[in-house]
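Each record in this resource describes a single protein on a pair of labelled lines. The shape at a given residue is found from the number at the same position. The record below illustrates this layout:

***
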Amino acid sequence: MAFLSGLLSIGGLLLLAGYLFRIPYLQQLQTDARIAAAVMFILIGVMHLVKPYKLTYMIEGILPYTYALVMISGVLEILLGIGLCFPATRVYAGWGLILLLVLMFPANIHVAVKQLPAPGGLPAAPWYTWSRLAFQPVYILWVWWAAVTA
């Protein structure tokens, strides 16, 4: 839900800035959604690289090379987030992020089933870890609408 809060906050601020400062480019909801997604994926990717050991627990026991996988996913999130910013790579980056979200879904299921704490120091309560699963399709739809259909 923190990721969704970031998407909505950044997107809303961009839209507001577009109208306040009369910037036509930022008055387009789809553009603001794409920029918000780029910012959030870049931030999350950086977190993967800066604090990988805070995320490895999510896949320990189900996949080998946990450290490497966290680092690779971080690099991909950053590169694909940047890719959302350019018309020539936007669609490819969108599909790449959708694939990444699908591939990461089992880690979120593992966290919920094993009643592990949510990443980033977020609540470990079962209601929270299970509710995170419901938001994964929302993120996929967000990226699809903002990047692939643009």
